[in-house]
Design goal:
The complex is a heterodimer.
Chain A: E1 2-9, H1 30-58, E2 64-68, H2 70-79, H3 81-92, E3 96-98, H4 115-129, E4 137-138, H5 147-155, E5 160-164, H6 167-170, E6 178-181, E7 188-192, H7 194-201, H8 216-224, E8 230-236, H9 250-263, E9 268-269, H10 272-278, E10 283-285, H11 301-304, H12 307-318, H13 320-326, H14 329-338, H15 341-345, H16 352-361, H17 367-387
Parallel strand pairs in A: 1-2, 1-8, 1-9, 2-3, 4-5, 5-7, 6-10
Antiparallel strand pairs in A: 6-7
Chain B: E1 2-6, H1 17-31, E2 35-40, E3 53-57, H2 80-104, E4 109-113, H3 118-128, E5 132-136, H4 140-143, H5 149-161, E6 164-167, H6 170-178, E7 186-188, H7 195-199, H8 208-213, E8 215-220, H9 229-242, E9 246-251, H10 257-266, E10 273-277, H11 281-290, E11 293-296, H12 305-312, E12 317-320, E13 333-335, H13 340-352, H14 354-368, H15 373-390
Parallel strand pairs in B: 1-2, 1-4, 2-3, 4-5, 5-6, 6-7, 8-9, 8-11, 9-10, 11-12, 12-13
Helix pairs in contact in B: 1-15, 2-3, 9-13, 12-14
Classes of the chains: A alpha/beta, B alpha/beta.
Chain lengths: 388, 391
C-alpha cells in the first residue's frame, strides 16, 4: 500500500475595504495579508517545513507532495522570503514533489472559454519551475474535477490528476486504486481518501470524536489494514499549527508518522508521480459534473451557489475581454487576482454548519459584506478599465 | 399548571416588544394547556383567545411608561413623579386583585415582566409562597442615558429576589448580572416572530406608485436615543449624496421627535424624510413590505423583534451589533451604531446590488421562520417546570 501525502498551500490576496465614500490606496490589503502571512508562517509553514526536512533526512523512504499557488509564492516573496527559502530547502531534498495548478487559485476552469485557464496553468508552471522541476500531476483549484477537467489536463500534457474520492463517483469501488477517466486517453485520476484525510484535517483535535486522540501509531495501523494499492491523503497544509494548534499534538503526530509507517511492511510512501508511474488504472470513472473537496456538497456551490456569487463571477468574467484588450499587464494581474476563488468562498450563504467553516476563513463579518466589498472593488476596477 | 402573570401592555396597546411578547407568549402557553390569568392595567379584547387564558383588568391607567414620559430635566414637563405614583398605585391594586383571584383557585407560579410589575410580584410571592419568574425585556440602562435610581433599585430587587430570571438575550443577561442576579438562575430565552403574519402582508395599492418612484429605507421604533434615530438621519444624509432618489421613513413616536425634525432640516434632507408617528398594527405589516431595507441602528437593543418582523416580510435588514437579535441571526448585515459611514455604505449596497437584496430577503425569511413564538413558549414552559420542581 503506497501512502501518498499531499498538502495544499495557499494564502489569498485579501481585499482592502472599499467604500463608496473613500478609496484606500490599493485594491489589496497589504497590511492584513502580510500580518496573516507572518502569523501562519510562524504557526505553520516554518515549523512544519523544518519538521518535514528533519523527517526527510531521518527517514530515507519518506516522501510527499505539495502544491503552492502563485498567489502564495508572490506573497512569500513580498512578505516572508524565509518561507520561500524553507520550501526551497524541501525541494532540494528531491523527495518532495510540487504539483501543478492554476497560478491564481482561480475558478478559471468555469469560464466559458478555457484559454484563461490554460494561461494560468502555464503561469504556474513557470513560477514553480524556479523551485522544482515541473510535475506531471495536475490539481485544479479546490480539487475541482470532471471528465472535462481531466481531458483538458491531458491535452496540457499531464499524466495524473487529483480528484475527490466521492462515493457517488466510485459506487462500490475503492478510492485506493488509480482510475482512468471517461473520454480521456491515459490520464490517471488520484482519488482523495476523504475519511482518512479528514481524520487529520478536520477531526484531529475534535474531542467529540470517538477516535480522539489520534496517534501516529493508530493511524499507521488503519493505513496498514486498508486494501488496495494506494491511499491518497490530501489536505490543506495549514492543518499543521493553524487549523489544529500546536498544543493539539498535530506536529507530534506528523513527527512519528514516518517511523510508524516504516514499522509496517505493507506500507511505503510515494509521491503522486510515483503512483502514476508505477500503478496501472483499475477502471474508468465517469464524472460529468464538477466535483470538488469543499463543503458537504463537494461541488462548486461553495463558490457559485448563490445569486451574489453568480452575479460577481459573471461580472468578473465579462471583464476578461476588455482587460486583455487593454494590454496592460498590471490590470491583467489585478483582474486575475480578483478571480481568486476565496473571494467567492467568503460570499457563501449555505447551510449553517458549513457557514461556520466559511466564516472561520473569512475576513468579513458576513457573506453580504464580502459581496459588497468585492463588488465595490470590481466596479471600481471596471471604471478604471474604461478609462485606460 | 396555573400561572398568575403580571404585565403592563397587551395589543392593541403596545409601545414595544414587551406587549408583543406577552401576547404571543400567553397565547401559546394557553394553547399548550397552561392556565394563565394575565393581570394588566388596561383591558384588552378577549376575542379569539384560548379559554385557558383570562385577561384580567386591574385598574385603568393611562400611563405608558416606555412611551409617554420624559426623564430629561431639561425638557419639562416631566411625568416622572406621576409615573412613580401610578406604578405604586397600580402595584397595590395588582396585589389586591391577584390575591382575590388566588382565593378562588390556587396559582402554581407567578411570572412578571419588567420593572413596573416587579414590586407587586415580590409582595404576592411573599404572601402566596409560590415560585416567581421574572422576565427582563430591557433594563433601565437600555432605555435611557440617564438611568433612574428608583427604577434601577426595583430592577436590582427583581434581579436578586426572583427565583428564576428570563433574559431576552445574552446581552440582557449581562445587564441582569450587573444588577446582582446569580448567574445560575438566569435563562436566556429569545423572542420570536409571528412569521405568517408578516410574510403574508402586501403593499397597499395607494403605495405602489411611491414604491415605483423611490427606494425606501425604514426606521421603526420609539424615538428615543437608545433606538438610534439620530444616527439614522445622519446615515440618510450620506446615502442621499449617492442615491438622491431615496425616501427615509421614520415610524414611531417618542420624545426625540422635535429634535429629529430639526436635524432633518439642518441636514437639508427633510424632503426625503417622512415622520409617520405611531403606526397602527395593521399598517406595520405593510410598511415593512414597502421598505427596500430596514435599519435598526439601536445603541442598546435588548432584543429587537422588529428585525425579525422585517425579515419575515422579506425585507433585508441592517442591524446594530449592540442588539440581542444579532446574537441569533445570520441573514443580516451588522453595523456599529456609531459608524454612520458603514451604515450608509451598507444601505447604499442593499439599494444598489439586486443580487444582495434578493439573497438577504430569501435567507432572511427562511431564518426568521425558525424563530417561532412556539419555541419561546416551549422554553418558558420548561423553565416553569424546572422551577416548580425545585421550589
Amino acid at each position: 500500500m503506497k501512502i501518498c501525502i499531499y498538502f495544499q498551500v495557499h494564502q489569498p490576496m485579501r481585499l482592502s475595504r472599499y467604500s463608496v465614500f473613500g478609496r484606500p490606496l490599493g485594491y489589496f490589503d497589504d497590511e492584513l495579508n502580510s500580518q496573516i502571512m507572518h502569523k501562519v508562517a510562524q504557526k505553520c509553514y516554518l515549523p512544519a517545513n523544518n519538521l518535514i526536512l528533519e523527517l526527510l533526512e531521518k527517514h530515507p523512504n519518506f516522501c510527499l507532495s505539495f502544491s503552492l499557488t502563485g498567489v502564495f509564492l508572490e506573497q512569500c516573496k513580498k512578505f516572508a522570503p524565509e518561507v520561500l527559502e524553507s520550501f526551497a530547502a524541501l525541494a532540494a531534498s528531491k523527495k518532495v514533489e510540487f504539483l501543478s495548478e492554476t497560478y491564481y487559485h482561480s475558478l478559471a476552469f468555469l469560464f466559458q472559454e478555457k484559454d484563461e485557464f490554460i494561461e494560468q496553468v502555464k503561469l504556474h508552471q513557470q513560477a514553480i519551475s524556479q523551485l522544482a522541476p515541473p510535475s506531471k500531476v495536475f490539481r485544479n483549484t479546490e480539487a475541482m474535477f470532471s471528465n472535462d477537467v481531466a481531458y483538458l489536463a491531458e491535452r496540457l500534457g499531464y499524466s495524473g490528476i487529483m480528484a475527490e474520492g466521492l462515493d457517488h463517483i466510485l459506487g462500490w469501488r475503492s478510492p485506493n486504486y488509480l482510475y482512468t477517466v471517461k473520454g480521456c486517453q491515459k490520464i490517471k485520476a488520484l482519488l482523495r481518501h476523504y475519511r482518512l484525510s479528514d481524520d487529520i484535517g478536520y477531526r484531529f483535535s475534535a474531542r467529540w470524536w470517538s477516535e480522539y486522540p489520534l496517534t501516529a501509531e493508530k493511524y499507521a495501523r488503519w493505513l496498514s489494514e486498508l486494501s488496495g494499492e494506494c491511499v491518497n491523503i490530501f489536505m490543506d497544509y495549514e492543518t499543521f499549527g493553524e487549523h489544529h494548534w500546536q498544543d493539539s499534538g498535530i506536529f507530534e503526530f506528523l513527527r512519528h508518522l514516518p517511523a510508524e509507517v516504516e514499522k509496517r511492511q505493507n506500507l511505503e510512501f510515494a509521491t503522486p508521480s510515483q503512483l502514476v508511474d508505477t500503478l496501472a488504472p483499475k477502471d474508468d470513472i465517469d464524472v460529468p459534473y464538477l466535483t470538488s473537496w469543499a463543503d458537504i456538497e463537494r461541488d462548486t456551490s461553495a463558490w457559485l451557489g448563490n445569486q451574489m456569487q453568480q452575479n460577481a463571477f459573471a461580472l468578473l468574467q465579462s471583464l476578461e475581454k476588455p482587460v486583455k484588450e487593454s494590454q496592460d499587464p498590471e490590470l491583467l494581474h489585478i483582474w486575475r487576482l480578483l478571480g481568486n476563488s476565496d473571494h467567492f468562498y467568503y460570499m457563501c450563504t449555505k447551510s449553517l454548519s458549513d457557514q461556520d467553516v466559511h466564516n472561520y476563513f473569512s475576513p468579513y463579518d458576513s457573506p453580504f459584506e464580502a459581496y459588497i466589498n468585492y463588488m465595490n472593488v470590481l466596479l471600481d476596477f471596471q471604471q478604471r478599465l474604461k478609462k485606460s | 399548571m396555573k400561572i398568575a402573570m403580571l404585565g403592563w401592555e397587551f395589543p392593541p396597546f403596545v409601545s414595544g416588544g414587551l406587549g408583543t411578547h406577552c401576547f404571543e407568549l400567553t397565547y401559546r402557553l394557553a394553547k399548550f394547556g397552561v392556565q394563565i390569568d394575565f393581570f394588566l392595567p388596561v383591558g384588552a379584547k378577549q376575542e379569539g383567545m384560548p379559554p385557558s387564558l383570562r385577561l384580567i383588568e386591574v385598574a385603568k391607567t393611562i400611563i405608558f411608561p416606555y412611551l409617554s414620559f420624559s426623564k430629561s430635566k431639561s425638557k419639562p414637563p416631566s411625568y416622572g413623579e406621576n409615573l412613580i405614583a401610578a406604578v405604586e398605585e397600580y402595584s397595590r391594586d395588582c396585589v389586591r386583585v391577584v390575591l382575590e383571584e388566588a382565593k378562588k383557585s390556587r396559582y402554581d407560579l407567578l411570572h412578571s415582566h419588567d420593572w413596573m410589575t416587579a414590586s407587586a410580584a415580590l409582595q404576592i410571592r411573599k404572601i402566596l409562597n409560590i415560585p416567581w419568574v421574572h422576565t427582563f425585556h430591557s433594563t433601565e440602562f437600555d432605555r435611557t442615558s440617564w438611568p433612574w435610581e428608583y427604577i434601577v433599585g426595583i430592577e436590582r430587587m427583581a434581579a436578586c429576589e426572583a427565583d428564576r430570571i428570563i433574559a431576552v438575550s445574552k446581552r440582557t443577561k449581562e445587564q441582569v448580572l450587573r444588577l446582582g442576579a446569580a448567574e445560575s438562575k438566569i435563562r436566556v430565552i429569545y423572542n420570536g416572530v409571528n412569521f405568517e403574519r408578516f410574510a403574508s402582508s402586501s403593499i397597499p395599492s395607494h403605495s405602489t406608485q411611491i414604491k415605483k418612484e423611490k427606494q425606501i429605507v425604514l426606521f421603526f421604533g420609539r424615538l428615543t436615543e437608545q433606538k438610534g434615530p439620530v444616527q439614522f438621519l445622519h446615515a440618510a444624509k450620506k446615502v442621499l449624496e449617492k442615491k438622491p432618489n431615496t425616501l427615509f421613513l421614520v415610524a414611531g413616536k417618542g420624545e426625540l421627535l422635535p429634535l429629529l425634525i430639526n436635524i432633518s432640516m439642518q441636514l437639508g434632507i427633510s424632503h426625503n424624510v417622512r415622520f409617520l408617528g405611531f403606526v397602527p398594527e395593521e399598517e406595520q405589516r405593510m410598511i415593512y413590505k414597502l421598505a427596500d431595507v430596514y435599519v435598526m441602528p439601536s445603541t442598546s437593543e435588548p432584543f429587537g423583534i422588529t428585525a425579525l418582523e422585517a425579515m419575515s416580510s422579506g425585507t433585508p435588514v441592517i442591524i446594530s451589533k449592540t442588539s440581542g437579535v444579532s446574537e441569533i441571526i445570520k441573514a443580516a448585515i451588522r453595523v456599529d451604531f456609531w459608524d454612520i459611514n458603514a451604515m450608509a455604505e451598507k444601505i447604499i449596497a442593499v439599494l444598489s446590488y439586486t443580487p444582495l437584496s434578493k439573497t438577504m430577503s430569501q435567507l432572511g425569511m427562511k431564518e426568521a421562520s425558525l424563530h417561532t413564538w412556539d419555541k419561546t413558549a416551549k422554553e418558558t414552559l420548561e423553565l416553569y417546570k424546572e422551577v416548580s420542581k425545585v421550589f
